[in-house]
Specification:
Blueprint (H helix, E strand, L loop, with lengths): L3 E10 L4 E10 L2 E6 L7 E9 L1 E6 L1 E2 L2 E2 L6 H12 L3 E9 L3 H17 L6 E5 L21 H7 L6 E6 L6 H9 L3 E4 L6 H9 L4 E2 L15 H8 L4 E5 L7 H10 L5 E4 L12 E4 L2 E6 L2 E4 L11 H11 L4 H8 L1 H8 L19 E4 L5 E6 L2 E5 H7 L1
Parallel strand pairs: 1-4, 5-8, 8-9, 9-10, 10-11, 11-12, 12-13, 13-14
Antiparallel strand pairs: 1-2, 2-3, 4-18, 6-7, 15-16, 16-17, 18-19, 19-20
């Protein structure tokens, strides 16, 4: 018989509402009950217990760039770095690269899932089927059409969820439909498409947009571009980097007002420095340096982000004035809904309840992560970290 664990949450946000003095009863990977009997508990979780964060765009962390070292050990390092900041599930992301790197990354993810490495939900291929005009920091020499080798990769059934970011002006409509029929989540990004082409991609089954406002055709007076379609589409969702550098605060507010609630979710687009004190790292044939919070490539572009999910949530709440519960949903429920294919709903969901996976975090009053729990296991604790120091 599996051993039960009783955790006293002084405050609990279940994804829908706040509660006081609730006891989470954990057995195995799941919450089997929530009660109010605080007389016998294994641990008291002060502050706020909330749903864990889900990050659908993670290039690296803990000093590791997944492209550069696509192994199971890298996945463990990257996840451990992000777990410190409340991420309980993530999509390791492969930036535009050669097919060998893509295959090695896929093999690592498949093996990680087989071994039960915590937090690995699938894989995100950000490219290589993108626009050279809007490539950003991606390497032009690897940008290419979909070949039989990529189709073999996208057909794999051992990778968990698959996201492919592509530019619809360079990927034919029939291929977008084929990807969707395989169960791939197609996101539009790194694209210079016009509004007509973007809308046709949505009609073909594209459901998301990668890092809204960044590396996509902007709104003009007589041309909505990718950005305009992303903002006005009521059925698609947009990932958004909220770090004070990638998108102006006014544009963040615009996106949140334009899209239905649940139509925007946070992503970090995180790079190796997250979870470290590193100030630079190698990126393909270039070097990227951390300058005042920005990651600047030697070729001049922003190259991903140095932010973690908890910092993004704090920025939403404390800098932008978004309600605490909605700031948390932007990092938890909404990305999870996108990945699962759940339709956009007006009413928030309960995320922590009996029968659900025990993926949650403990936050203090400043929304700083004190502990992270994945499948009922405590994978990060500030207390343990302090003792080790």
């Amino acid at each position: 018989m599996k051993q039960q664990m009783r955790l006293h949450a002084q405050r609990l946000f279940d994804g829908q509402a706040y509660h006081c003095d609730q006891v989470l009863v954990i057995e195995g990977k799941k919450i089997i009950a929530i009660d109010e009997d605080t007389s016998q508990v294994d641990k008291v979780l002060s502050g706020l217990v909330a749903p864990g964060f889900v990050d659908l765009q993670v290039n690296g962390g803990g000093g590791v760039l997944f492209n550069a070292l696509p192994t199971v050990e890298s996945l463990k390092t990257i996840f451990a770095a992000h777990a410190r900041y409340g991420t309980t599930g993530l999509m390791p992301t492969v930036i535009t690269d050669d097919i060998n790197t893509m295959n090695m990354a896929a093999d690592a993810v498949a093996e990680g899932i087989r071994l039960g490495v915590p937090g690995i939900m699938g894989i995100h291929f950000e490219g290589p089927h993108i626009s050279t005009v809007k490539k950003g920091a991606h390497s032009q020499q690897h940008i290419r059409p979909i070949t039989e080798q990529e189709w073999a990769l996208f057909n794999r059934q051992d990778l968990g969820k698959i996201i492919v970011t592509l530019a619809p002006e360079v990927v034919p409509e029939e291929q977008i439909k084929a990807l969707v029929n395989l169960g791939v989540k197609v996101c539009i990004g790194h694209s210079n498409a016009d509004g007509v082409t973007t809308n046709k991609a949505i009609e073909c089954g594209a459901t998301g947009f990668t890092h809204l406002f960044n590396a996509m055709s902007p709104i003009a007076a007589r041309e909505p571009g990718v950005t305009g379609v992303a903002l006005t589409s009521e059925t698609t969702r947009c990932g958004l980097i909220v770090d004070g550098h990638h998108v102006d605060d006014v544009n963040i507010q615009l996106a949140l007002k334009a899209k239905p609630k649940g139509g925007i979710f946070l992503v970090t687009d995180a790079m190796p420095p997250v979870g470290t004190d590193a100030t630079e790292f190698e990126f393909f044939d270039r070097q990227v340096k951390v300058k005042a919070g920005r990651l600047i490539s030697t070729t001049g572009e922003l190259a991903g982000a140095a932010i973690d999910m908890a910092s993004s949530v704090r920025y939403c709440h404390f800098n932008l004035g978004i309600a605490e519960d909605e700031s948390i949903r932007l990092a938890s429920q909404y990305p999870k809904d996108y990945l699962s294919g759940s339709p956009i709903q007006a009413n928030p969901k309960v995320q922590l309840a009996p029968g659900m996976l025990a993926n949650f975090i403990q936050l203090d009053e400043q929304l700083v992560v004190q502990s992270t729990w994945v499948n009922g296991n405590n994978v990060f604790s500030q207390e343990t970290m302090a003792k080790e120091v």
